[in-house]
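comment on this one:
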Amino acid sequence: MGLRLLPRDESFFDLFNREAENILHGARMLRDLFDDYRDVEPRVDAIKAVEDQGDEITHMIIDRLNRTFVTPFDRGDLQDLAKQLDNVLDWIEAASARMAIYHIDQPTSRAREMAHIILSMTEAIVEAIGNLKKLDRIMGPVKEINRLENLADHVQRNAVADLFVGAGNAIDVIKWKEIYDTLEEATDQGEDVANVLESIRTKNL
């Protein structure tokens, strides 16, 4: 409790909010790509640019952690939070890239559903990060992140099952399984964000 009385660098909150908003921007672009599947390669490149911006923000957070004596929360937790947020956007970008690399003609309905789940999860992440100064409010969005991760697992399992039931072209099955797995991994990383946030709350309330 004593550390809370010491001066601390409040700019971390702004940086984490920027990082979360950037992830949300990437998730919206992914959702829009899957819902309106045109001009794929330039839109995938645009998502990559958002991911690059996320890397820059993450580096800024890590650099500030290395140069700041008193941090708002445990230094290791803040480092983990920055890296896990970055991972969410990395997997969003990877999902979009696979659509272009594999020359996918159209997203499936399951893929669109997962893109919408990812967007909803990133909205919950933004809300949770926005409550870092009010930790008593953080569990609502954390629980929503966990709910959405469970939903994504369910959709992904059904999507993969449909691939093998349909007995389609083997190459297409391999492509789509990887895409589904990549989309689901983005939500797994979101759940890891929730776990770090819950740890921060437990240690500081």
About this structure: The two ends are 10 Å apart (CA to CA). The domain at 8-204 is CATH 1.20.58.220 (Methane Monooxygenase Hydroxylase; Chain G, domain 1). The first helix runs from residue 11 to 35. The chain is about 80% helix and 0% strand.
